[in-house]
């Protein structure tokens, strides 16, 4: 059977002659493989690469030319079907009947990843391949490797040609371009000085060490030597970065400098960190010199201590001992005023610090060795530690704690006094709303009165001491005063731990911070149960006796006098009928005198027991009190009623009447008043207020501070008995105002 040759491939395109001429000029063999893997075109370079005539490959499947054991024979799809660029090494048949290693590469692609249009027109749906001798590729690879390594270096690397005018850049690596933001064509051919151009176009070459660094570069280049400097450089976008530049010359065989290699590092972070550290050191130095503490460094040398540094406070202390040196560095402690004994104390503690892993604390006094309790002696608390963790340098800080310790002693004394006080003292936080306020402290007297241990009350609210008989009206008044930030005094029933009720009197005052804000409440408390019981018994006895006398006057003497007036009227009528007009006139005058006596007896009875003696209520009693006072004292006394409501129960009304009676008598007898106004004001749902105002000489401040005499204390007691508080104050225009405010609900059992 005659041997057949593959048919001539039908592969023609415009410019084919030019393409064939170009492929013939290449050292690589050029092949075009169609989509089915057949070789459609072979350039003449195949002879040089494999020793094969192009006709031997033309029209054959490409894999027929590849060694049957190579990996490309067994891949799922032909490697040339992969998107370019790609590169493979395979063994192919050569002209000597053997196999030769070749490198197969695709054509280049555009930056956008597309195949150039010219290539696409030539190969159509085929693939353009380049075959290269493996050894030649290795040499080229070495060159490529050097270039890739040059570009991969983290440093900014440039090469400048010393043989050309102005020493322009001829090579720059990729990191240089990425760091500066320039394109390669923008920097090659330029001198490196363009990197000192600011965003506004001006050159940065004159201040903060820049000029000196540039001079150093110019000197090195002029002499053909090496140098390293830090420069302020600017990226293409104008942003500043700091560049540490190392310049080295490159010489030819004759020793002449042909190029300079510049290796640059972006040290912006280092420079900024160094600047920040400088600022930090400046701040530390400022603190060191301005600190109120004595601070410094000593060195352990030759069995003694020498000063290495001292701040202003320490120098001032040394100078107060007579030291007059210009510098204290290197001076022994005894040279700057330390006694031998004091220097030995410091030396011992420094040695202790040298042997320990932490700071050493000790106390001393100044003047050195003085009695700590002596007048004008300063107490110093000293801390010694290794300076920066190294020997033989040791830092010291000495704080003047004289005032701190004096204050601490005073606080301890105050705390002891409060703890041992006979009266109960309670401290709470400033929270008024439930579940507050919270108890922060209770002294021993509080624990003794209430029966609770300290850990049982800390963190609790004083509400825990209230119960059914605690007066809600008193609690509401206290809350209003505390809400207003005012001190308050009050009393009501509290309960001990065993449930026993007792009458507690307390005063609460705010504790404020430096800004005037209330941060705590402090209360002083007293068990006044026995005193109140005694006062109540005395007043009840007196009240009962007054009521008895009033009843006797009203029912006894009043009835007798009333009967006498009737008898005299009868006698008067009989005498007139008998024509004895003179005796009838005497009987009439006697009747008038008895009627006056009867009126006075009734007035006395009303004064002794005004409420329910005649059952017309508190308002009527106060109105009659004003009328009687006008007659008895000769003053203009008026009663004013605002609103309308009955004051119940009888005891409450009786106490208010007695308060008004006492206040009116004080105004007339002691205040020398010419006018007095009694006001009873009823407020819907808000209670009642009794006020007695006069225009007299007023009450002295000293009397108010002392709590007044017996009359004022009696009025205050009566006010507390009805759940109110007595308020006595001097009026701006002269005179005195006495007032009592009662809540709408009368005192009695109430929920806490």
Number of strands: 25
Total count of helical runs of at least 4 residues: 21
Biggest sheet strand order reads: 2-1-5-4-3
In terms of quaternary structure, the protein is: single chain
Report how far the terminal alpha carbons are from each other.
127 Å
Q: Whole-number average pLDDT?
A: 82
Q: State the low-pLDDT regions, or none.
A: 1-9, 747-752
Describe this entry's structure for a reader:
The structure is a single chain. By secondary structure, this protein is of the alpha+beta class. A 5-stranded antiparallel sheet has the order 2-1-5-4-3. Helix 16 packs antiparallel against helix 17 and helix 19 runs antiparallel to helix 21 (710-721). The termini are far apart. It comes from Rubrivirga litoralis. This is PAS domain S-box protein. Keywords: Chromophore, Flavoprotein, FMN.
Task: Present the secondary structure layout.
Elements: H1 16-25, E1 29-33, E2 39-42, H2 46-50, H3 54-57, E3 87-93, E4 99-106, H4 117-123, E5 127-133, H5 134-152, E6 156-161, E7 169-172, H6 174-180, H7 184-187, H8 210-223, E8 227-234, E9 240-251, E10 257-266, H9 268-290, E11 294-301, E12 304-310, H10 312-320, H11 340-355, E13 360-366, E14 378-387, E15 390-400, H12 402-420, E16 424-429, E17 439-442, H13 444-450, H14 454-457, H15 472-483, E18 488-495, E19 501-512, E20 518-527, H16 529-577, H17 581-608, H18 617-633, E21 636-642, H19 650-669, E22 675-683, E23 687-694, H20 701-706, H21 710-721, E24 725-730, E25 736-742
Helix pairs in contact: 16-17, 18-19, 19-21
């Amino acid at each position: 059977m005659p041997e057949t040759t593959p048919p001539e491939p039908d592969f023609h395109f415009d410019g084919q002659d030019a393409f064939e001429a170009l492929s013939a000029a290449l050292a690589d063999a050029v092949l075009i493989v169609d989509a089915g893997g057949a070789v459609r075109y072979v350039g003449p370079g195949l002879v040089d690469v494999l020793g094969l005539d192009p006709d031997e490959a033309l029209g054959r499947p490409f894999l027929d030319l590849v060694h049957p054991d190579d990996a490309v024979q067994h891949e799922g799809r032909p490697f040339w079907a992969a998107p370019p660029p790609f590169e493979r090494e395979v063994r192919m048949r050569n002209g000597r009947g053997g196999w030769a290693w070749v490198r197969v590469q695709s054509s280049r692609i555009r930056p956008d990843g597309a195949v150039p249009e010219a290539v696409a027109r030539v190969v159509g749906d085929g693939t353009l391949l380049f075959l290269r001798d493996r050894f030649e590729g290795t040499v080229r690879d070495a060159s490529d490797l050097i270039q890739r390594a040059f570009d991969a270096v983290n440093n900014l690397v440039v090469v400048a040609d010393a043989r050309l005018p102005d020493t322009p850049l001829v090579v720059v690596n990729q990191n240089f371009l990425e760091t500066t933001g320039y394109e390669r064509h923008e920097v090659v051919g330029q001198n490196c000085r363009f990197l000192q151009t600011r965003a506004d176009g001006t050159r940065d070459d004159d201040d903060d060490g820049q000029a000196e660094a540039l001079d150093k570069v110019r000197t090195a280049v002029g002499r053909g030597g090496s140098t390293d400097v830090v420069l302020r450089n600017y990226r293409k976008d104008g942003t500043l970065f700091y560049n540490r530049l190392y310049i080295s010359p490159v010489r030819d065989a004759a020793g002449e400098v042909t190029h300079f290699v510049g290796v640059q590092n972006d040290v912006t972070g280092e420079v900024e960190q160094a600047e920040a550290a400088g600022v930090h050191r400046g701040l530390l130095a400022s603190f060191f010199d301005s600190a109120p503490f004595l601070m410094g460094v000593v060195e352990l040398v030759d069995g003694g201590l020498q000063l290495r540094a001292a701040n202003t406070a320490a120098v001032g202390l040394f100078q107060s001992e007579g030291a007059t040196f210009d510098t204290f560095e290197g001076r022994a402690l005894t040279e700057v005023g330390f006694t031998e004994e004091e220097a030995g104390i410091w030396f011992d503690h420094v040695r202790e610090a040298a042997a320990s892993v932490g700071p050493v604390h000790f106390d001393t006094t100044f003047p050195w060795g003085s009695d700590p309790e002596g007048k004008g002696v300063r107490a110093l608390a000293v801390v010694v530690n290794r300076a920066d963790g190294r020997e033989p340098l040791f830092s010291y800080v000495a704080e003047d704690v004289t005032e701190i310790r004096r204050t601490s002693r005073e606080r301890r004394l105050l705390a002891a006094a409060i703890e041992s006080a006979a009266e109960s003292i309670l401290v709470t936080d400033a929270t008024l709303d439930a579940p507050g306020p919270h108890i922060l402290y209770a002294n021993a007297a509080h624990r003794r009165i209430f029966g609770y241990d300290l850990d049982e009350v800390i963190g609790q609210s004083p509400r825990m001491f209230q119960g059914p008989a605690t007066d809600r009206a008193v609690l509401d008044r206290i809350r209003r005063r505390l809400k207003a930030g005012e001190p308050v005094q009050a009393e009501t029933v509290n309960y001990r731990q065993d449930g026993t009720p007792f009458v507690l009197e307390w005063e609460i005052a705010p504790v404020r911070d430096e800004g005037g804000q209330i941060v705590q409440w402090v209360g002083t408390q007293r068990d006044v149960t026995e005193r109140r019981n005694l006062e109540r018994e005395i007043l009840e006895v007196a009240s009962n006796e007054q009521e008895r006398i009033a009843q006797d006057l009203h029912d006894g003497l009043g009835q007798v006098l009333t009967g006498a007036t009737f008898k005299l009227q009868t006698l008067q009528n009989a005498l007139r009928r008998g024509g004895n007009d003179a005796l009838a006139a005497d009987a009439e005058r006697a009747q008038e005198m008895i009627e006056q006596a009867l009126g006075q007896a009734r007035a006395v009875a009303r004064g002794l027991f005004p409420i329910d003696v005649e059952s017309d209520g508190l308002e009527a009693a106060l109105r009659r009190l004003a009328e009687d006072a006008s007659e008895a004292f000769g003053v203009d006394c008026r009663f004013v009623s605002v609103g309308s409501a009955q004051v119940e129960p009888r005891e409450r009304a009786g106490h208010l009447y007695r308060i008004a009676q006492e206040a009116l008598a004080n105004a007339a007898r002691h205040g020398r008043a010419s006018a007095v106004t009694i006001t009873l004001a009823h407020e819907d749902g808000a209670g009642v207020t009794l006020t007695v105002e006069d225009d007299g000489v007023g009450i002295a401040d000293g009397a108010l501070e002392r709590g007044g005499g017996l009359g004022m204390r009696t009025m205050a007691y009566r006010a507390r008995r009805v759940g109110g508080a007595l308020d006595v104050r001097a009026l701006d225009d002269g005179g005195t105002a006495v007032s009592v405010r009662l809540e709408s609900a009368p005192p009695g059992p109430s929920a806490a």
